[in-house]
Amino acid sequence: MAPLARSECLFIVITLSFSVGCFTASASAVKAAYWPSGSSSPPSAIDTSLFTHIYYAFLMPNNVTYNLEISNSKALILSNFTTTLHHKKPPVKALFSIGGGGSDSSVFARMASSPVSRKAFINSALEVARNLGFDGMDLDWEFPENPKQMLDLSILFNEWREAIKAEAKATHRAPLLLTAAVYYSVDFLIFGGRRSYPVQSINRNLDWINAMCFDFHGSWDTSKTGAHAALYDPNTNISTSYGLTSWVKAGVYPEKVVMGLPLYGRTWKLKDPNQHKIGSDAVGLGPGEDGVLTFAQVEKFNRRTNATVAYDTVYVAAYSFVGTSWIGYDDVRSTTIKVKYALGHGLRGYFFWAVSYDSEWKVSSAASRAWTP
């Protein structure tokens, strides 16, 4: 998971709708966020009243042994992460995420292809979780590239869950949580060939999936501005509503689906400063590293430049512009609507990438308030 992950470009209009009851078990709701390990804001600064689960991002297995090799210094950081979050008021669950958008997908493909390497990986992950006080584990494999790798992923989930059950029984402790960060849609129609996630294995083995409903547009396409986390898109199936619908239509239980929300914006350089809507012509990236600004940086940029802030009710997305600079992002209004959408369609909750990108907890607070079953 990273702001630079590539997304599909399928210019097809497909309209689907959920037909499920509302998820009312508010005690089980997920209000999660990922905490990047290089964050300048420490775990102690997190307002845990706004969250239920915080993910440490990221760990990576060795590309030969497939073990999570944790140095003494890293172990100290991870132990501090879990201890801090467990002693906050209120406390939150702490998980670690394995992989991420910048990781080598081939490592996961090789690991998942063999019973021996899967066992080594799973045992190592359980050992790290228990030894360092984590409540669970998350796999962020971006992305399985073909049907064979999806089948291997299914087997990995099966064996991982069995190992969790066996460990919990042997130690008389609560089972560790197991989640996965996944593509916004259950299907990949291009970008490596058609393949689909293993729905039955997900239902059987995972506590929930974190659907990455962002990065629909970005630095890989500088010709048009884009709402990179649009709830709806009138012209394509590249939208949060399409992606979430695809998961439920494929058979994943709604209470196992968690909607991803971005706390960052993507930027473009306008071709014509007078044409500044979503989908306007662009000639390159705008401000920020690789055309990315955190929400806090977006607000600072808007104030400093006196940018015009706008909102598109069709896409359910905010954007701002000044001169040739254009930024698409989620604000309090769009996030509130998207969280209510997830709640109203019976989903388990939402997560943010990433917790340290907010501005004075504005968006995180709005999301928490909006989740009122």
Automatic annotation (TrEMBL):
PROSITE patterns in UniProt: GH18_1, GH18_2, PROKAR_LIPOPROTEIN
The GO molecular function terms of this record are: chitin binding; chitinase activity
* Keyword Hydrolase found: yes
The superkingdom listed in its UniProt entry is Eukaryota
Query: What InterPro entries would the database entry show?
Result: Chitinase_II/V-like_cat, Chitinase_insertion_sf, GH, Glyco_hydro18_cat, Glyco_hydro_18_chit_AS, Glycosyl_Hydrlase_18
* DNA-binding recorded as keyword: no
Q: Which GO terms describe its cellular component?
A: extracellular region
The GO biological-process annotations, alphabetized, read as: carbohydrate metabolic process; chitin catabolic process
Q: Report the family membership.
A: Belongs to the glycosyl hydrolase 18 family. Chitinase class V subfamily.
Q: Which PANTHER family match?
A: CHITINASE (PTHR11177), NOD FACTOR HYDROLASE PROTEIN 1 (PTHR11177:SF396)
In this chain the GH18 domain maps to 29-373
Recorded hits in Gene3D superfamilies, A to Z, give: 3.10.50.10, Glycosidases (3.20.20.80)
Q: What is the originating organism of this protein? A: Rubroshorea leprosula
Leader sequence segment: 1-24
Give the protein name, as stated in the record. GH18 domain-containing protein
- UniProt keyword annotations, A-Z: Glycoprotein, Glycosidase, Hydrolase, Signal
